[in-house]
Every structure is written in structure tokens, then in C-alpha cells.
Amino acid sequence: MSVQVRIPTILRQHTGGQKTVEGTGTTLDELFQDLDGRHNGLRARVVTDEGALHRFVNVYVNDEDVRFTGGLKTPVGDGDSVTILPAVAGG
Amino acid sequence: MARFDSLADTVGDTPLVGLPRLSPGPRVRLWAKLEDRNPTGSVKDRAARYIIDEAVKDGRLTDGATILEPTSGNTGIALAMAARQRGYHLVCVMPENTSEERRQLLAAFGAEVVDSPAAGGSNAAVAKARRMAAEHPDWVMLDQYSNPANARAHYETTGPEIWRDLPTVTHFVAGLGTTGTLMGTGRYLRERNPAIEIVAAEPRYGELVYGLRNIDEGFVPELYDESVLTRRFSVGSTDALTRTRELLHAEGLFAGLSSGAVTHAALAIAAEAVRRDREADIVILVADAGWKYLSTGAYTGDAEATAETLDGQLWA
Description:
The complex is a heterodimer.
Chain A: E1 3-6, E2 20-23, H1 28-38, H2 42-46, E3 57-61, E4 64-65, E5 81-86
Parallel strand pairs in A: 1-5
Antiparallel strand pairs in A: 1-2, 3-4, 3-5
Chain B: E1 16-18, E2 28-34, H1 44-57, E3 66-70, H2 74-86, E4 89-95, H3 100-108, E5 112-116, H4 121-135, E6 140-141, H5 148-165, E7 171-175, H6 180-192, E8 197-204, E9 231-236, H7 237-251, H8 257-275, E10 280-286, H9 303-311
Parallel strand pairs in B: 2-10, 3-4, 3-6, 4-5, 7-8, 7-10, 8-9
Antiparallel strand pairs in B: 1-2
Helix pairs in contact in B: 1-2, 1-5, 5-6, 7-8, 7-9
């Protein structure tokens, strides 16, 4: 059971410069806890102390924003792809 | 009636056309709202008109004023036409990684373009424009990202047009930039029928565009209200390019790249509707046509190489 996680440039200090890392879990919350064991500090950059996503961070499971699919409770599974991105403007 | 008093009066009331070849079947139908039929060729003519009218009404914008606006292109071009017609001077702060055609169009309308760094994309343009506004207190920054008149343009025009033309609409899919189109249209359609799904397709660029020093420098437009959306998809350059070409090849629709991203999200929703055996009328907002992206190779270039080039550009 492994989920591929794409890490944005600004968070790669926590992954030794790796662009993608792998983790396990049945929900995003479990996945970030698993990742934090190997990539210290990564979780705190994405998840607040109150257990929500940081305002300027977007997380996608298979290209869909998790704020609309259950937040950190969003289920993940083998073969899923998770993308973390900073919020940017358009227009 | 197709007679108008002036070019400015031709904003809105755009055609909604069926996409029979892209639609998966008779029960799941795709429709395109052709916003390239606005006077400067994009959906932004709606917001520009409302934003300027509002600023004139409340006295912020007076004759001969200088307007300052951060823009990746279309809003700038729409404001530039209005500025030309009404005698304002326009300064656009634009990321340097935007298409050549957008710059030429702005220059043609007489707008002044100030570059912001490619790294950071529109965030950097917004930050730079807000700094410039502080340095030039006499300039008027209309700020499409926070200006309620942007969303109201869509609440009062785009939404009612769709409801009038397609009362059976089940989904509205549009690109997410300032969020004005989705907020305004979404609120209006939801009020008419709370079951309508409002779906955002957000462009996903290459790393350069997200090259921020700090996550707290991220930017969420003040207009954005998460509760209006049902779902939000992130669409990369390759998928946007593939769908842009599909629109052209299947339907003969020459759309810009953000419409490819919107189509990508719409087709995912259409496929779900088919799987669940549900009827659906899915409206795709085509924000602009392909003219401004010809130089990127989007329509004729090698697909892989073009997608790579687009990754570092702001194509929506």
C-alpha cells in the first residue's frame, strides 16, 4: 500500500530535496503522520496545530482538491497520487 | 436585436452552444458558453465593465485618471479597451512569462505594461501592483481579486444568461483565477436550483510559477468563498493542451488553453454521470479563443515540447 506524494519546491527542505516521496495510510491524515516519521517537519507545514489545512496550501488527491472531498479524512489508497501546492492567483 | 449604440454595449449575452461530438451520449450533454464573443475576446469584458462603472459611480475614477491593475492578460486587455473609450490611462502589472500576443494587444490599446518576475506567477504581479499603488496614491487600483463588482458582473449577467438558455443545467464548470466568474455565476445558479454543482478547474503550472520563498506568501483572492464550489480540480499543462486540441478537432472550437483545462474537468464529470446513469447538462465556460496562444505552438506544435514550454508560462 503506497501513495505517491508530490512535494513543492518550498517544502523540499523536509524531504532532502526529493520531488516525490511515498507514504502509507488509509486517509490523508494517516498519510501525513506516516510521512512525518521520515520527513520531519513536513506535516506541520501542511496541517495546522488545530488539525486543518494551512490557508495557503492546497492538497489534491488525483488532481481533486481535498477541501471538497472530506479534508484530511479524504480516503487514499494504493496507486493514488497526492499533490501539495502553494495557493497562487490567476486572472 | 443585433444593433448596439457602441462597442462597449456588446458585452455579454454570449452564445451557449452544444458540443454533440464531445458529449458522451444523449443523456449527458456538454455545452460551451462562448465568452470569446465579447468585444476584446474574453470573459473579462464583463468584469471590466462592472468594475469601471462601479468606480465611476462611487467617485473613485474621474476623468483622465490612471488605472493600475495586476493581470495575466485578459483583464488588462478588457480594461485597456474601456480605458481607450473613456479616456483613462492604464498601467498593467503582468508576469513576464505570459504570451507575446497579450503584450502586443495591451500595447495596441495603448496600455503601459510593467513586468513582474516569472517566479511566483500572478502572486508576484499582485504584490508588485499593491506596492506600486502605495507609491502612487493618485492612481486607482480596481483590484479584480478583491473587487465585488467582478463577481457581481457574473451574478447579474453570466448566471442569468445560462439559466435563461438552459434551465436544465446540472453543472457549471469554469476556470479559477480571480474566482469572480465562479463566485458570481455559482451563487446565481444555486439560488435558482440548489442542486446545481459548481465546479472549478484550476490551472497547475510548473515549479517556476510556485517558486515562492515562503508558504505564507501564497495568495487566495478576497473574492473566494469556498462554500460556493462543489468540487475543485487541478489541471496540468499537458491535460489542458490535450483537451484544447480535442475541442478543436472534435467540435471545430478554437478555444484558449484555460478552456482545455475546464473541458478536462467537465469530461471527468460527464464520465461519472454516465457511470451512475444520471442525466446531466454540463456548461463549460470558454473564457477566450485561441488567438492569443498561437505563438506557444498550442495548436500546431509538437505536443510534448509545447506542454513543456507551457508549464513555465501563465496560460490561464
